[in-house]
Amino acid sequence: MSPIAPALLLASLIAAPTSPAAPMVTVRQVLTHRALEGESVLVTGRCLDRNAQAVAAGSRPMSGDVWQLEDHGIATWVVGKMPSGCAEGEVTIRAKVAKDYLPKLSPARTARQYLVVE
């Protein structure tokens, strides 16, 4: 291999487009910061599987793979496959913040934010 080849390889790796960095946020921020809606974020917490008692607000946002991510007694719903690292306790996930509304039976049709695994 010529000495130029490794330099070209390195240059192509540096110039390759990368996905934008997602900010690290807390579970509380996912639930309370409306500006995060539609954004990709990194969130760390403890996984609660579908059989765990609901800590997150309201009912599950969708059917299918829905679980909770809990941190310091606060939880949010997560839609998508639960990472294998969940068995070891805390995990950091990359997810998009989504929003829906709790049913009309709730006072003032309350908005709720949750996570969708990317």
Account of the protein in words:
There is one protein chain. By secondary structure, the chain is an alpha/beta fold. The chain is 15% helix and 36% strand. It contains 2 helices and 6 strands. The N and C termini lie far apart (39 Å).
Which terms would index this structure?
118 residues; 5-stranded mixed β-barrel; 15% helix; alpha/beta
In N-to-C order, the SSE pattern is: HEHEEEEE
Helix content: 10-25%
Q: Nearest-angstrom radius of gyration?
A: 19 Å
Per DSSP, the total helix count is 2
Approximate shape: globular
Please identify the structural class as seen in this structure: alpha/beta
Q: What number is the mean pLDDT? A: 82
Number of strands: 6
Measured by DSSP, the beta-strand proportion falls in 35-45%
Low-confidence stretches: 5-18
Largest sheet: 5 strands, mixed, barrel
| Straight-line N-to-C gap | 39 Å
Q: Kindly report the spatial arrangement of strands forming the biggest sheet.
A: 2-3-4-6-5
